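Can't paste images in this forum, so I'm doing it all in text. The chain is below; anyone willing to post the predicted structure tokens underneath?
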Amino acid sequence: MSDPRASLDIAYSDDEAVAVPWAAALARLAQAQLAWIVTVRPDGRPHATPMVPVVHDGKVYFHVGRDEVKTANLRANPNAIVLVGDGEWEHGLDVMVDGTATVVTDPAVLRAVAARYRDRWDGRWRLEVEGGDVSGTARGVDIVVFGVMPRRARSHDKGDPFGQTTYRFAPERADAQDGSS
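Text version of the structure:
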């Protein structure tokens, strides 16, 4: 995936602000202990829940139970938003990724995502991959891994100077290499 075009939104930025590079926004996503995943219910109402994200090859990944509301929502409507940030006003970087979430089935991608989960926090977010099957720390839960391919994203660089950057990604064909369905 190629880097997006980044532009500073001058209407929402201080005069001294500069666009935040996409690499910095991705690093913020990769370091976040929690991200909010927003999906759409079949009746159109939003559904939001915190998840532990990992970043691999420019996509944001998370795992859920096969029978959870998020899974049903994403199977019916793959549009999702991933939000990382905090309640601070004077410092920090908030990031929003708007994209399409797809189920990951490729064993190589699943192993790479599982390896990133092992590095999270104190290692409690463990995924085991055997072929295309994934198991996790919750016993008896059938795990599904989703990857969110960004369509567009925004970052909010807080403090002095305050700036908002918009990232626009080139339209690409569905990436069949990661086994997304």
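Helices lie at 22-31, 69-76, 107-118. Residues 8 and 165 are 4 Å apart (CA to CA).
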